[in-house]
Every structure is written in structure tokens, then in C-alpha cells.
Amino acid sequence: MQNNLDQKMFLNAFNTIIEKGEKEQGFYHLNDVKAWHDYDGYCCYISYNKVEMTLMFHGKYLLDYKNEGLLESFIKKVLQINKGT
What pTM did the predictor assign? Predict the structure, then answer.
């Protein structure tokens, strides 16, 4: 797992998905990326292509993925959302 990812990048994408995405059954969807949060908003989640990221307070995050290729595609998709494409 990479420990040097900029959490702000993922939080920005999370906010964009929540603001611009379509809500369906408690999840927001934008450009094939899914975002949701727990009931108190303490943990935020982003999921795409079998990669799930949990964003927590104090700059912490968890990543769940099977291989580096999937992680790279997840990061690329988050960057696209942040650029507005």
C-alpha cells in the first residue's frame, strides 16, 4: 500500500461525487465511481473498479485493492473527477 497519497485529492473527489453525482440507495455515483459516508460522516468511502478507499480524520486512510494496476486506475479516475472530466 502506498502511504504517500495526498488525502486532499481524494476528499475533493469525494465532495465532487456527492455534489454532482446521482444518489441511488444511499450511494452517490459519478463517472463509475461510488461514494458514501457512515451515519455520522466520520468515515467517507470512495470505490471504483474493485478498489475501496476509506477516508478518516487526522489525515488517515485505508486502501483495499488486489493489485497495483487496479490502484493506479483508481487514482487516475480520481484525478479525472478532480479535473472535471
Answer: 0.89
